Each structure stands twice: as structure tokens, then as C-alpha cells.
């Protein structure tokens, strides 16, 4: 891919681009039409909180199935979506859905996705949290050009977990994901099925993000526009309501925002049970009143609505927000009581043993506020460079340091999962006591993780800040696994 074009810049240019050059990458696309005239944009009026219903994302159906595999086709194309009531907003969508269709997969049964690019820009698809071969990882320079298609093969040789898929084309990923190229990928297995957890229509994915709308209802994209993205969307609708029966529900919370951190909590102050982190079930349910999620992180929670009388209204709110326009995520409207045969057992899963480390590494995350460039260990992403090599079967201790004292970061590694060991030398948060692939790193903070590369495939993979506006600006690196199959 050394000579591949990416928005008018060769792969070899990527490591030395400054912020001005990055903005020029999209000069012929949607970003360029907005960034230059952002000061004169008039913003849309959004509906009052909790005035529109929250849909459950549409589920993708296989185009065909064999004895051991399901085959899907996802087409990335421009589409219109009703996000604000009565308004058709231009988006980028997989199969016309905003957010993208949910794929439900089973452990040990392969999924093959044919991705068709009907956009006028390159794209690529990364299965976030998936243990896949490098050629199926959707790396930032492994592009699908406009009018072309390719197949991604997912072996699903891992435990049940809430994963997700999204665009990862470098310098374009931020805007592409913001405009809609993301969806949930829910992996099930027999162990999970035998626990009796809420299932079927009581197992609901909730894709969280934020947005800024122009006066005409269009999505306005401005890089690093955290403050301006002041409309919260749940499953593609602004601060909706969701009718629930007075029983237990499993909610799969996915933070698909480019930059926003959420802290999910109930307006009543009541506790709920967290049952899973990014890469699967916790050892035991955690009773808690809040779960923080940085971009890319997932958490499965169980809320028992049988404690509320029919007619009660309970808001899922963002404990990180103090603004009325953003602190309400969605409202649960409790309806009648129904029979509930589900349960949350005291034991959920057995985690792999925490093996001794074979190496230690440090990753220092920084961002230049003047240029907007992002760095890891003082270097911006260069797709020609391998930053380090890992032996298959290794278990390494990584220390991730946020050198910025105001700017928040987080850290995602492709392929491998990890366990959080400490925060600034103290214990990790109880909500991250499980298998992870993304971890928040607050300003000035240091986080230690133990990363496992067994089992693993050989080849080249990516690590980066998953505040995706930051990775688009260079806060990303590349590593190689040797000895893999």
C-alpha cells in the first residue's frame, strides 16, 4: 500500500502531515464544505428531550448460509435518515441504516462480510474487538476504493461479547464514523446462553453518540468539535424514550461517539448490574450506580424495572455532563408487568489466568494544541513504520500515559485483549474488571494493562487513541506479531 492514494495524499506522506494538510484531505468532500464556513452555520432546533421513540437497530440477515458460515453483504453509501423528526438528514450508511445493521454471530461459526464501497472516497471496515487475521482487520491503509468490494472473514473463535464494526480509513475515519459508518456485532456462545440472562427482545443494543446539526437538519462535521456536538443520539434518535415492561432487560451500551465520554447512570440513583466489559462477561455481576465509557468502550448492564410501578419514568443520564441538553441520554417508560424467567447468576464466566509479563512497554499519548497533531511516544502514525515486534504467545505489561493535562485520551489495541492492572499505581475501576480492548486515560493519568497475544495471528496490527478525531490526526502506531499462524 506504499503508493496508495488516501484523499489525495500517499501513504508515505502520512507521518509528516500537519493539521492544515489534514484538513485539505477532505477539501473535495463533506468536511471541506463545512470547515471553511463553520462560523456562519446556523444550527438546527432539536426536539425536546424524550419526545421521540428509540428504535432497536435493524438486524442484518445473511444473504446465504452454509453448514459452518453465514454470509452478509454490507454496502456503504450515501443515504437519508430521519434523525430529527420530519427531517431527512444526509448520512453515510451501511445498507441504508443509521446506525448500521446489527450482526448477530455465534462463537465457532464463521461470518463472511462482503463490503461494497458505493461512496466516492476510500473506506475500510474494522471489526472492533474481533480476533481476526491481519488481512481481515480493516487496517487504516488497507483500503477499499470507490466502486470496489472485498470480503472480510471473521472466525469468531472467541467468547461471547458486544463488538462493533466501523470505518477505519486513515484521515477519513473520523468523518465517516461521525456520519454513520458504524454498527453493532453481537457474538453469542453456549456458555452465555446457559446463564438465563435476559434475551430476545429483552436484549437491546444501545449505540450512543453525539452530533451537531445545521439549520437544515444536516450533520455538521468539524474536526475536534466536542463542544459543538451537543445533541445526544441513542440508536440514531435524539434523547429518545423507550418503552419497557416491568421486568429485567439487558442493555448493551456501546460508545460510538468520536470524542464524548459517557457515564451511564439512572436518574433515580438506583443501582443496576454490570455483567460484561468490552470482550465479554465479567467473572461475577457488579452492582453499581454508574458505568463510565470512553469512545469505543462497551458495557452490558441489566436493569430490573420490576421495582418500578407501571407508568414510572426513569432516565438513563450521563453523569459526566452538567448541561441539560446533554445529560439526558434516553428515558425508560415503564409499562405493565410481564412474566420474567430471566436471571443474573452469581457467577458469569471464568477469565483466563493473568500470566506473567514477558516484556514491558510504555506509550506516551500527546497532542499539540496548536497544530492538532496527535503523537504516541513523540511520533505520528507512519504506515511504513513498525514500532515494535511481539512474539506470539507473549503477555506484556503496557503502561499508557496521557501527557496532556487537560485533553482526555483513551487507548485501543487491535486483535488482542487485555486486563487493566492499575490507575496511577492504585486499583483499576471496578467497572473494568474484565477483558478489555479499549481503556480511558484521563488527563495526566497513567494506566497499566497486561496484554495477551495468545492465541494470535501473525502479521501487522494497529494501536491508537480511540478518540477517533485524535487517531485521524496521527495518534496511532503499528506493531508486528511474529510466529503466528
From TrEMBL:
UniProt cross-references to PROSITE patterns, sorted A to Z: MULTICOPPER_OXIDASE2
The entry's keywords: Metal-binding, Oxidoreductase
Keyword Glycosyltransferase: no
InterPro entries, A to Z: Cu-oxidase-like_N (IPR011707), Cu-oxidase_C (IPR011706), Cu-oxidase_fam (IPR045087), Cu_oxidase_Cu_BS (IPR002355), Cupredoxin (IPR008972)
Domain Plastocyanin-like: 82-190, 369-481
SUPFAM superfamilies per record: Cupredoxins (SSF49503)
Keyword check for Metal-binding: yes
Similarity comment text for this entry: Belongs to the multicopper oxidase family.
Descriptive protein name: Multicopper oxidase family protein
Species, as recorded: Actinomadura napierensis
Amino acid at each position: 500500500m506504499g503508493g496508495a492514494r488516501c484523499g489525495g495524499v500517499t501513504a508515505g506522506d502520512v507521518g509528516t502531515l500537519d493539521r492544515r494538510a489534514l484538513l485539505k484531505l477532505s477539501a473535495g468532500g463533506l468536511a471541506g464544505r463545512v470547515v471553511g464556513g463553520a462560523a456562519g452555520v446556523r444550527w438546527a432546533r432539536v426536539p425536546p428531550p424524550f419526545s421521540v421513540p428509540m428504535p432497536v437497530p435493524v438486524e442484518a440477515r445473511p444473504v446465504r448460509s452454509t453448514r459452518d458460515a453465514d454470509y452478509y453483504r454490507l454496502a456503504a453509501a450515501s443515504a437519508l435518515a430521519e434523525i430529527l423528526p420530519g427531517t431527512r438528514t444526509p448520512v453515510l450508511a451501511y445498507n441504508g441504516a443509521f446506525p448500521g445493521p446489527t450482526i448477530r454471530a455465534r462463537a465457532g461459526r464463521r461470518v463472511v462480510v462482503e463490503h461494497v464501497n458505493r461512496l466516492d472516497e476510500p473506506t475500510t471496515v474494522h471489526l472492533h474487538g474481533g480476533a481476526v487475521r491481519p488481512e481481515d482487520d480493516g487496517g487504516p491503509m488497507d483500503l477499499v476504493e470507490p466502486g470496489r468490494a472485498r470480503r472480510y472473514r471473521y472466525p469468531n473463535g472467541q467468547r461471547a461479547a458486544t463488538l462493533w464494526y466501523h470505518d477505519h480509513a486513515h484521515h477519513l475515519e473520523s468523518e465517516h464514523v461521525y456520519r454513520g459508518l458504524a454498527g453493532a456485532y453481537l457474538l453469542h456462545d453456549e456458555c452465555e446462553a446457559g446463564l438465563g440472562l435476559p434475551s430476545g427482545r429483552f436484549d437491546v443494543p444501545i449505540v450512543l453518540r453525539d452530533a451537531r446539526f445545521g439549520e437544515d437538519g444536516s450533520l455538521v462535521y468539524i474536526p475536534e468539535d466536542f463542544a459543538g456536538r451537543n445533541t445526544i443520539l441513542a440508536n440514531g434518535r435524539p434523547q429518545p424514550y423507550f418503552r419497557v415492561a416491568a421486568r429485567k432487560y439487558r442493555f448493551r451500551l456501546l460508545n460510538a461517539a468520536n470524542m464524548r465520554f459517557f457515564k451511564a447512570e439512572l436518574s433515580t440513583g438506583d443501582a443496576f448490574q454490570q455483567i460484561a466489559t468490552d470482550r465479554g462477561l465479567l467473572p461475577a455481576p457488579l452492582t453499581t450506580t454508574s458505568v463510565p465509557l470512553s469512545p469505543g468502550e462497551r458495557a452490558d448492564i441489566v436493569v430490573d424495572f420490576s421495582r418500578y410501578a407501571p407508568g414510572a419514568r426513569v432516565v438513563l443520564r450521563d453523569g459526566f455532563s452538567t448541561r441539560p441538553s446533554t445529560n439526558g441520554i434516553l428515558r425508560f417508560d415503564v409499562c405493565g408487568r410481564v412474566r420474567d424467567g430471566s436471571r443474573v447468576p452469581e457467577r458469569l464466566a471464568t477469565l483466563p489466568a493473568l500470566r506473567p509479563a514477558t516484556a514491558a512497554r510504555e506509550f506516551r499519548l500527546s497532542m499539540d494544541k496548536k497544530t492538532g497533531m496527535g503523537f504516541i511516544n513523540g511520533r505520528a502514525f507512519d504506515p511504513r513504520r513498525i514500532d515494535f515486534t511481539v512474539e506470539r504467545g507473549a503477555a506484556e505489561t503496557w503502561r499508557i500515559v496521557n501527557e496532556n493535562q487537560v485533553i482526555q485520551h483513551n487507548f485501543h489495541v487491535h486483535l488482542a485483549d487485555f486486563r487493566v492492572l492499575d490507575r496511577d499505581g492504585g486499583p483499576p475501576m471496578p467497572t473494568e474488571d474484565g477483558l478489555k480492548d479499549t481503556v480511558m486515560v484521563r488527563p495526566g493519568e497513567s494506566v497499566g494493562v497486561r496484554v495477551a497475544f495468545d492465541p494470535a495471528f501473525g502479521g501487522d496490527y494497529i494501536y491508537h487513541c480511540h478518540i477517533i478525531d485524535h487517531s485521524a490526526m496521527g495518534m496511532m502506531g503499528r506493531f508486528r506479531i511474529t510466529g503466528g499462524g
